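To: structure subgroup
Subject: Chain for Friday's discussion

All,

I'm putting the inputs and outputs inline so they're searchable in the archive.
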Amino acid sequence: GGFGAVRIGKQYSATFLNAVAADPGGATAATGALYLAPMVGYNGSEAPLRQDQGIQYDLPTFVDGLKLTVTKVFGGKNSALTNASSGTETNGVKTGDGTGFAISYTSGPLYLGYATDSAVNQGINFGTTDAETPAPDTIIAASPTSKNKLNTLTATYNLGMAKLGYNTTKMSVGSEALSTNMISVNVPLGAASVFLSSSSGKVTSGSTLGAVNLSGLQYGVNYGLSKRTVAYIHAGKLDAQFSTTKKISNYGIGIHHSF
């Protein structure tokens, strides 16, 4: 209504919604969309991709195309968390409390968005030496009282014959950080569309494997079966370079329906 909009409960974070706006693959989890790496792996939870016990408030529209969103997240109390690096347990830590802010502007074919979330760290089990999953798991998180900060900046422009997208995302816990960049293009072909996205990423500090450089590629086809139902075939690959190079590739076939 005129007061804006309020959403309460488990929901997608503003940082994720801003980042996914540049992903023509729609976050269907095919390897290669590296902006998702900073948003998963937090002690096995989805945060901050989705936030539990969250309240989001969209302010009333003061300027056409301008949207402002404020988020408050109420965390829970963990009975025990284990730091994979030291093996020590931290009992009764209340993690996940956080705040967020998002601003976006839409004008015709142009979309610009910035979102930030900050929460009490809940990922103190980072620090694994599993070389198959070198990021973000190899980021050794700081103490559970450290702030976990996530920032996303996105721009898209629809040329008609193609839609271009750009996103940069950075997650940091204390002095440790994981940053990613993505460019994308989506070309409509009647009921179908084909897309390609290219990503790069870097663990700037805190990795048990030393410096980690990431590169990703994702591509696929979306086919509209109806206004709200899309069939898709997506594929992607990820290269992680540290003391050695690991290559991961996968694909997905599915149908997506928006209720």
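Points worth raising on Friday:
The longest helix spans residues 14-20.
The radius of gyration is 19 Å.

D.
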